[in-house]
Design a protein that fits this description.
heterodimer, A: mainly alpha, two-stranded antiparallel sheet, 11 helices, B: alpha+beta, 2 domains, seven-stranded antiparallel sheet, 10 helices, 12 strands, 22% strand, disordered N terminus
């Protein structure tokens, strides 16, 4: 299996970036390999490409930049919607949370990520996190995927994201953000 | 924080009084011998001068060394095999906390009916430790635990993680309250693939100790205390420190490990530890719990055991946390604090 295939396979299996040996060892020293990866992502802006995208971002910034920002944002938003666990984005808690690779990539995309993330603000499916204490946060706060979309969208819009342990209060925060988006 | 005294420092007052192996006989002039008798004679002379191998220790000496090293598992192995007057004497000299370490080792070795176990009981009695406080984990208060749920996962989309809920509560005894200002939890976990033994934990990659055990904390946390905020307080939703100022409320913690991929084993050793006060660093009890998740995301809980004191693997995990805390930037949180190591 090629490196590209292994990265796609790990994403399909919902392996987290931190758990993926293919992600850890990805280098993209060969220009042909870099172009093949970027080409695949341009043609397939889906959740399945998220580990490949993040590996390219880390190892081959030029090839990563050659993928249209809209496509990169679509891949990341799809990952937020479809990945079993959202650890690659980071975690959310009352202390302000933590950003990991996918979260950093969204913030870096800025404007291009607004529309795809806005589409996730209504996703009230559980925002599962794998692990021990990290997974406990999902349980503590009944985190939803929309909470993650809100966390990044607010910051891209230059706002300080609010966080309340009560999901009903967070719904109000999300509604306020929607209003801001509509007023743009 | 009070001054920390490491176990090594505590041990500093003791001296190893065993004699060093005997020194070799006074040397001869090798060149003179070579001239007079040749190389073979030199070789024989040199061989004869090699220090005799240190004589094997007697069983009594082995036992003495195990006590000296606080190697409680070894003490159990030796004493249950051969007992003897020195074991009786040494056990009688142990402090109540040392008896608790030894008691844990006896349980680990499944030797609860041994002579050594009876000696430990006699030791507790001699120190007037009440019967109830002699039980594992009961020396400093009341430990309660429960598995709140075990939800199997789903592999088909929408995927659902396998989730396991576990809670621990500790109510300090009155004599403990006098010596503690605050009590919290330090949790060490081992999360490994059941086939390969590879680490499958989602945190702690930069602080793995022996057999993948590591202090279980959120990435980016400044404190190694489970559930503690960076300011040193409680995260109300999943951890509550016991505070002297609110002495009626027990220390409490909740963990909900969750896995999307199966074939994984999760084991935790959660230590209840004094975080502030005269007892700072002292381990009051430990709870060993865990579960495994099979390929189909079906959970099988492991038996939960309460011990008096921390294991060697736990100490290694704390050492690894502290090494991370004092290690290079980028492999630790910005202001990662060291954990105590004076658990006794």
């Amino acid at each position: 299996m090629s490196r590209l295939e292994r990265l796609l396979s790990d994403a399909e299996e919902d392996v987290l970036a931190a758990d993926s040996e293919a992600y850890e060892s990805a280098r993209f020293d060969d220009p042909g390999e870099r172009e093949a990866a970027a080409g695949w992502l341009r043609a397939n802006p889906t959740a399945g490409g998220v580990l490949l995208l993040l590996a390219l971002r880390r190892e081959a910034p030029d090839a990563y930049a050659s993928i249209p920002a809209e496509s990169r944002a679509r891949i990341l938003a799809a990952a937020m919607r479809e990945r079993a666990n959202l650890n690659d984005f980071g975690y959310i808690d009352e202390q302000g949370g933590l950003d990991r690779e996918a979260g950093d990539a969204l913030l870096e995309l800025g404007e291009a990520a607004i529309a795809p993330l806005a589409g996730e603000l209504g996703d009230m499916n559980p925002g599962q996190l794998e692990g021990s204490e990290e997974a406990t946060l999902t349980d503590d706060y009944a985190l939803r995927r929309a909470d993650f979309a809100y966390r990044y969208l607010a910051r891209i819009l230059g706002l300080q994201p609010k966080f309340d342990p009560d999901p009903a209060v967070r719904d109000q925060h999300i509604a306020e953000l929607r209003e801001r988006l509509e007023a743009r | 924080m009070p001054d920390r005294v490491t176990i090594d420092e505590e041990r500093g007052g003791r001296e190893d009084t065993r004699e060093a192996p005997g020194a070799p006989a006074p040397s001869m002039h090798i060149l003179d011998l070579q001239r007079a008798a040749g190389n073979a004679a030199v070789a024989r002379a040199l061989a004869a001068r090699q220090p005799a191998q240190a004589p094997a220790r007697s069983p009594e000496e082995e036992l003495e060394k195990a006590f000296f090293d606080d190697d409680w598992d070894r003490v159990v192995a030796l004493a249950t095999a051969r007992g003897g007057p020195s074991a009786v004497k040494r056990v009688a000299e142990l402090s109540a906390d040392e008896l608790r370490y030894l008691d844990d080792a006896i349980v680990r070795a499944d030797q609860e009916d041994s002579l050594l176990a009876r000696l430990v009981k006699a030791g507790f009695d001699a120190k007037k430790v009440p019967e109830k406080q002699q039980a594992a984990g009961a020396g400093y208060g009341k430990v309660e635990f429960k598995n709140t749920f075990a939800h199997d996962g789903r592999k088909t989309r929408p995927k659902k993680n396998a989730r396991y809920g576990f809670e621990i509560k500790f109510t300090p005894a009155p004599w403990t309250m006098g010596a503690a200002d605050e009590i919290g939890f330090i949790q060490s976990v081992q999360v490994v693939d059941m086939d390969t033994g590879e680490n499958r934990a989602s945190n702690g990659r930069n602080r793995l100790a022996s057999d993948m055990w590591h202090v279980d904390r959120l990435d980016g946390s400044d404190h190694g205390w489970y559930g503690m905020t960076d300011e040193g307080g409680s995260k109300d939703k999943h951890m509550q420190l016991w505070q002297k100022s609110d002495w009626g409320e027990p220390a409490w913690m909740k963990d909900v490990p969750s896995r999307a991929r199966g074939n994984v084993m999760f084991k935790a050793e959660t230590a209840i530890v004094c975080s502030k006060g005269f007892h700072a660093g002292k381990v009051y009890a430990t709870v060993h719990w865990g579960f495994e998740v099979d390929d189909d995301l079906v959970i099988t809980p492991y038996e939960t055991d309460v011990f008096n004191k921390e294991s060697e693997a736990f100490r290694d995990a704390v050492d690894a946390w502290n090494a991370q805390a004092t290690g290079p930037e980028g492999r630790r949180s910005g202001d990662q604090h060291e954990l105590p190591t004076n658990f006794r």
